[in-house]
């Protein structure tokens, strides 16, 4: 049977409430029990409520011949303290309907209950009663009203209370600031902060924490912290420094974080466990794992949160054995510890260890199940992932659905991913940014522009279109599906594009051979103050290579490390070799490879080999191909190019030897393919492929077209010859 929520407005609209509680009118008569007995009973109720013995307290309350306002408030407060919100609201309703006058303590306590329980309707009813009683100008009542609206994300209601009462109640400034921060309305929060009559460390920390948590606000969080220290108004506390350290971690700003680590020691917070955990996470985020380990060892008796942070960092850096050592030493382990190690084993290819640890877990949470779905999907065991997904029925969260959709996509079952999305949509499961990111990736793999556009229409109806994470997936999908104009529009829709979003569009331009446009976009990015990363330079160098912009490409390569501190990787070197090779500078490309500070891999040499084949530099092809075979004897493309070279040179014996070696290695070149999209279905075609369900009709049509083309060619040849003869005759 469903419990009906209590109503506080009954006496206003229904006379039957007065009749129902008529016997309680006797409570207004002079007390029959001495005053000291009431006081002692109230003290006993308070004591039992503090101990959590609410049933005992309630029995005492119910047995009282007469309950005072203090008795009611004590019992309501007890229910509130121990999270029994329904009972607290029900008792308040009974109190009101018993004609007991609610005072400022009743209102502030019950509004707090509504805030914690998300009881919006009941809170608004209480607001009506507050206005009727005239108690809204009491400091605690006004504060409780604003807190209720802010906690229930009813920000307009909170603003109305603030506008009416803030002149008489200074507490409302801090509460309004918290409300805006909770709703991620940072511009409004900053406006309130700037107008505050006085700002303590809590106000500064609230605003800094809001920016530190927001997607693109970490830089501003650090700027606010610098202003806070420069103002001399307050001294940062442990919570301020915790937020600042975490912001440095999200930005990957190692230098700034180390400065703040020094401040932390100066203020004497280095032994605070919460801050130590933040420091470990910061150093892990900045890939300074040895510094993270030093902080951990310095703690002496690290807590579980700190241990989990370090385990996560070690796993991210691929140091699974070190993570395993810390995990094995833990006296106490929680599901987070297990989940980290399960994922760590999977990422290092030890799926059996992941499975063994998962089976050992005594307390499996939905996060554990989601992690294992990810593990099975990553290992290609999609059936096991699906079985686990079915077992989560009733406790699934959006991450569960997203994990399964990503699993389907990773295992090339993109249609199944979309079927799951439709089920999710039908069941009204909340979508997250990861939902759309996974599906746009599936559209990219399918090469389905129509499907991507349909999904984009769904995104427009959500708050995610302007999100950098989803917007970047859109840009990538449209670029790879051949629609650069749509990619540009999607990029323009992102509210605050980060370096990944800029890089995605640069890569799109590169993919379509739009080198000049890519360079202009790169310059715009720099003007916006966005710092390029390694991925950005891969994209811009590729764009220069495809557009033949050799000088510009080499200039960008040289400033990459000198101006932006990006150390070139093999991928960057491969781009430069491709840049030089495509433009015919083969000797310079070979010399560049020899001068590299790290040994070139198959990809770098392969870029040179492709250029040699394009420019038909036969003398270079053999030498470069042999270098590739020394690194990877099974390099298929090198075998194919070498075989084709021997064919052109008429060296049929050498060609047969290469082909024989290729067959002996059990290698086969992946055939080229083409595809068309028809009625939201993608049809893929390979040479001599007969797996398509309509292949007979396709080949019959192809034969018909071929015969028509041949007859037209013969007619043109004959007619052209006749014309020449006639012309010669005249």
From TrEMBL:
It comes from the Eukaryota. GO terms for biological process: RNA modification. PROSITE patterns: PPR. It holds the Pfam family E_motif. PANTHER family: PENTATRICOPEPTIDE REPEAT-CONTAINING PROTEIN. Signal peptide: none annotated. It comes from Fagus sylvatica (Beechnut). Keywords: Repeat. The keyword Transferase does not apply. One of its GO terms (molecular function) is RNA binding. This is DYW domain-containing protein.
